[in-house]
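Title: Prediction job returns without error message
Component: structure pipeline
Severity: low
Priority: P3
Assignee: unassigned

Description:
Job completed but the reporter wants confirmation the result is attached to the right record. Sequence as submitted:
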Amino acid sequence: MSSAVRRMWRRLGQAYTRLCARDDAAAHGYTVPTGVWACTRCHQPHLELASLNYHLRTEH
């Protein structure tokens, strides 16, 4: 049961990242152009979401 809950929680997090992150950024006054992701801590640009996630895991 706990592995199913963890899997669901991970999928919800991924869905938020893919679907709602740009809308959330716009609501907070940030502009992120299509195809470019920027780190909120160091403002380093990334062309893919996977590279941004890797950057956040390793650098922050």
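Comment from assignee: result matches the submitted record. The chain has a mean pLDDT of 81.
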